[in-house]
Automatic annotation (TrEMBL):
Name by which UniProt lists this protein: Peptidase
Keyword tags: Repeat
Region ranges (Disordered): 101-125
Native source species: Streptomyces niveus
Keyword Repeat applies: yes
Length: 184
């Protein structure tokens, strides 16, 4: 599949690896891919972020991702489903943090065991996002996978990253229009 990735799409993948290394994360996640996309310049995804105003609100995007990490990586849908059965995630986070300190429920805090290689692997969800980017490209009739296809895949897959993007106006439809115009 990677042979179909354009230079820009490959830059997203290597940028995600760099993001994971910078934060000492043991794995590469969708969040790392989003941050790599936000760092890209002169690409279709950078244009989409700019036209949607997301780039101007990067701090807010990062705060949204951090808030989701505080909730143990739960998406809005997860939180709402638990609320329907009477579980208040915000209250649980508050109690856990009161007892164990801020960020105690945060995800990504695992450190590789001693003696292990520092090679980072993509999480199953991140792998599925890369697979989804191929489906998006094929569905559009494109022969190559671009950074824009990766961005669309991030908006299409349910979870924290798509929630945060949607909260900032980056729904699948809005991103698709910003990337490819009204006809999509």
């Amino acid at each position: 599949m990677f042979e179909r990735f354009t230079k820009g799409a490959r830059a997203v993948v290597t940028g995600a690896v760099a993001q994971a290394e910078r934060t000492a994360s043991p794995e590469i996640t969708d969040e790392h891919m989003l941050l790599a996309l936000l760092d890209s310049q002169g690409t279709r995804s950078a244009f989409a972020f700019t036209s949607l105003g997301i780039l101007d609100r990067r701090d807010s995007v990062e705060a949204g991702l951090a808030d989701a990490r505080r909730r143990g990586g739960m998406s809005h849908a997860d939180t709402a489903a638990l609320a329907e059965i009477g579980i208040d995630v915000a209250q649980i986070v508050s109690k856990v943090e009161g007892a164990h300190g801020e960020g105690a429920m945060g995800v990504g805090g695992k450190r590789p065991k001693r003696g292990r290689t520092s090679h980072k692997k993509f999480t199953p969800a991140a792998k599925k996002t890369l697979e989804q980017s191929l489906r998006v490209a094929v569905g559009r009739g494109d022969k190559e996978i671009t950074d824009g296809h990766i961005l669309l895949a991030l908006t299409a897959r349910p979870g924290v990253v798509s929630d945060v993007l949607a909260d900032h106006g980056g729904t699948y439809g809005a991103v698709e229009r910003a990337l490819f115009g009204e006809r999509g």
